[in-house]
Amino acid sequence: MTGKSDYVEVNSSHNPFLFSGTKVADGYAQMLVTSVGMNTTWGEMMSTISRDTNEQTPLQARLNKLTSSIGKVGMAVAFLVLVVSLARYFTGITEDENGNREFIGSNIKAVDMVNSMVTIIAAAFTILAVAIPKGLLLAVTLILTYSMKRMMADQAMVRKLSACETMGSATTICTDKTGTLTLNQMKVTKYWLGKEPVEDSSSIATNVLKLIQQGVALNTTGSVYKASSGSSKFEFSGSPTEKAILSWAVLELDMDMEILKQNCTILHVEAFNSEKKRSGVSIRSKADNTIHVHWKGAAEMILAMCSRYYDASGSMKDMDDGERMIFEQIIQGMAASSLRCIAFAHTQIPGEQHEIGVGLQNLKEHSLTLIGLVGIKDPCRPGVRKAVEDCQCAGVNVKMITGDNVFTARAMATECGILRPDQDMTSEAVVEGEVFRNYTPEERLEKVDKIHVMARSSPFDKLLMVRCLKQKGHVVAVTGDGSNDAPALKEAHIGLSMGIHGTEVAKESSDIIILDDNFTSVATVLRWGRSVYDSIQKLVQLQLTMNVAALVINVVAAVSAREVPFTVLKLLWVNLILDKLCALTFATGQPTKDLMEEPPVRRTQSLITNIMWRNILGQALYQIAVVLTLQFSGESIFDVNEKVKDTLILNTSVLCQVFNQVNARKLEKKNVFEGMHKNKLFWGIIGITIILEVVVVEFLKKFADTERLSWKQWGACIGMAALSWPIGWVVKCLPVSDKPFLSYLNW
């Protein structure tokens, strides 16, 4: 239930309940079932996981706001055009093809009047259709889906599509330590004999070396397996701590576990206990028939049982209070270096004591001799410090939540770069889970931003921190691997479960599965999330440029001549076909380092920035000028009929979007061609778009209502469209204000 495999004693007085989903390790009893299904503790936890919060992602909120604003503008403009067109019609201003007034009072035929009304209303609805970006949501989904597929190669499996972009808005990442920041591969890195560290195992006294080998080989639940007699490779099994000690003893101290077991008889074993944090064994040596007791466990526990110690030369010495304090300082120093400190102790029991039962049932727990101290380190993963620094440079806070003690947690956080070396224990950057839990709600909200490390924490503390951060307006990403982490994974905006050591419950509760359990992959997901958001912004800029231009063009044309150049069919081609191809061109780009140098996008920040509005209006004004010139003077300029003129308008508009795709590659940078030659798929999609446009213009005359164009006319269309590149460069030289453009409209 806690995610740890610690035994919990069940008795009738203090802890009478058995929990569904746990296993009975020892003992017997009669059980009375009091709750089943969702009423069990497991069921209550699962109900918090399966509950749908119905909370909108940042992107959904922004897209809804955008489409709502555009819809209001479209309806307002369409209604205005309808009123103006009706007023012009009934006042007799509008004329037919022959130059005669269309409305002649009571003399007009009902059929003619109905036809005119239908034409006016159709023009208004076309304007409404132009204003609303119909293919935007589908194009956004294409970008998310394509990016999701490519993230698999970077060790991230996206289970929830919206998590791709939500990760780009993350402001805080709450991460576990073991297996995520570290390798989860324990290794002995320090050994102290007496009050001195041992650098070379060959310098250890023979008598002490023999005792250490005995204590390791016979007081363990792990095992050593050698594949074959000729092989030098060993396989170690057991808990991570046991494997680390066995590996050190075999590889560094040349311990032969099989020979030691053959030379001794085990009399009694006291298994490791999570409360006492130690394990012991009594053995009889077959060589001289002597009885020995070995203890191993948490250094501070074993030290309290010792009254003597072996020094560096192998001599036994008494331990007074001053020396005991020195050993305590050594233990604290190892913990401060993010080492797990394990001590070994030994005593020999006289034969007469053993004859009366001493050491057979109850192992001797006092007046022991300290053999040595070992420091076990779970090494920091390669690249983790760089990944943490990248996240911090990107404006994302990284918080470490661990079950380790404060000293170890602080040391590991400093090593990973989460804490600065100058941040001491009193700076509120490091806090214990119990302390955080006992804060008042107001204190938690006040201090949660200052906390970088939470030590000795429970899954409930992690959930509490996530809720506090969400209340403060943060977009929170959380890593977790145990079943008990599931509520926090579900509560966070982005739940990141571990693919190797994560439980199925954790994976089901998460949005993204980190396949290699590495924090570096979490930073990569953050970079991908920002890349997705950047691609969506580019798509929205391109889409709105076309929509704004088409809206203004149709409004001016409808009010002045009552003929709209963009019919519904042509709009479908430009909107639905081109938008999907444009979406793919933006989705194919690789995440760049520049994305990690900018602060995260705030949840309240508009999807369309002032920089984007500047680019949209600059390109839209140019396209409006070109198309309206062609609409009113195209026939005389090119000496063509009306049908060819309409084809020129369509062709120029499509080619403007194609050239503007290159402009949209960089929202702020003037050099839009940087890195473009590396993206072969981008060139392929541009080529497909141009081929489709040639097919529509040259071969689908009846379907698309177009006429074939000459080489000169094609050249003119390409020339007018290509001017959008220098215009884009000039537009990007214009400064913009920090106040959001839409805030002036108060929508």
From TrEMBL:
Positions of the Cation-transporting P-type ATPase C-terminal domain: 564-733
- The UniProt transmembrane annotation reads 70-90, 120-144, 611-632, 681-700
Q: Which domain of life is it from?
A: Eukaryota
* EC primary class: translocase
Where mainly located?
Answer: membrane
Q: Which reaction does it catalyse?
A: Ca(2+)(in) + ATP + H2O = Ca(2+)(out) + ADP + phosphate + H(+)
**Pfam families in the cross-refs:** Cation_ATPase, Cation_ATPase_C
Quote the protein name from its UniProt record: Calcium-transporting ATPase
Upper classification of the organism: Eukaryota, Viridiplantae, Streptophyta, Embryophyta, Tracheophyta
